[in-house]
Amino acid sequence: PVHLEFTVQGMEVKPASEGLIPNTGHFHVLIDEGGAYPEGQAIPFDDTHKHYGKGQLSDDVALSPGQHELTLQFANAKHESYGSKFASTIKVTVK
User: Smallest Cα–Cα separation from 76: which of 34, 14, 32?
Assistant: First the structure.
């Protein structure tokens, strides 16, 4: 697995269960999805969109061997993206 740690500046991490609170949200990892989601677009629930709605700040993500693009995306309690300003993308190679 690939160990990831999550941070955000200018927002506060809160569990999605606390509801919509301005300037708060939680993390998502988008696997091989081509980068950040536009602001306001909901992030799907499937194998390539990992949700951390409990407010988690890290995870060990299992990936198949090869190159992968991982985007850390911050979103509100309704899983609606805060856009590219609150996203970061890296490339990793899994052996």
Answer: 14
As a whole number of angstroms, the distance between CA 3 and CA 60 comes to 4
Q: What is the pLDDT of residues 31-65, one digit of tens each?
A: 999 999 999 999 999 999 999 999 999 999 999 99
Number of residues assigned to the chain: 95
Residue (of 37, 33, 94) closest to 60 by Cα position: 94
- C-beta separation of 53 from 37 below 8 A: no
- Beta-strand runs (E) in 1-95: 2-5, 12-13, 24-31, 49-52, 58-61, 66-75, 87-94
SS3 77: coil
Q: Please, which pLDDT band fits residue 70 given cuts at 50, 70 and 90? A: very high
